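Ticket opened by: R.M.
Priority: normal
Category: complex prediction / small molecule

The reporter submitted a protein together with PMT and asked that the result be attached to this ticket for the collaborator who will pick it up next week. Submitted input follows.
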Amino acid sequence: KLNNYWQGRKLLITAGPTHEAIDPVRFIGNRSSGKMGFAIAEAAAKAGAQVTLIAGPVSLKSSPDIERVDVRSAEQMFAAVKEHYQQQDCFIGAAAVADYRVKEAANEKIKKQDGVDELTLELVKNPDIIQWVAAQKDKPFVVGFAAETNNLIGYAKDKLARKNLDMICANLVGESLGFEAQDNQLTFITNNKVEENPLSDKQDQALALLAFIAGNN
Ligand code: PMT
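Result attached by the on-call engineer:
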């Protein structure tokens, strides 16, 4: 099904959450486990691709034929992507990157104070990693993900256009959907196609995604 398309091709992929420090021991994060992105990385490597995986803080292992860069924050993920995006054939952004980070993380652990019942954290916007990749002159084929709790296809199409992506994978997320789960259901969207997959495990979704890219390039 993959028709040797991935043999020798270079794929850069982000996976997992980012952790945005509040102080040395606390962070703002999300429930991404990295499973979806790691499944794509493993399937592509098996299909003969040269895979670089930029992983947020996750507890997953990856096979030794995958070049892995571990990062923690969105800014670190951005720096790693900038270092590796050149000469890639494809970039897949499966990471759940924090949209905002704490403006000034404290250098020391923040102490609970008597009489102080409210604490305000000031947040600033993080760089949009995939949008930056898609804006480069020598850009690879850029595939984004859209994690939505409602209006899935509508919001995904907005992101495809706004971030100038070649393709986006839409998935519904919620209490037991998308994040952390073993199964997922992706809808592949390009400027002229919408293709919905049946629900299956993330390994299976990964293969379907790689086949879709192969068939649309
Ligand atoms: O890791 P799992 O537990 O297996 O869960 C998988 C998943 C649900 C996290 C995954 O399938 C998924 O949907 N990943 C993207 C989640 C997300 O945060 O989407 P978003 O709609 O916020 O972002 C849209 C796109 O922009 C994504 O490709 C994202 O990587 C990218 N982005 C977002 C913000 C930012 N600052 N930089 C980015 O590159």
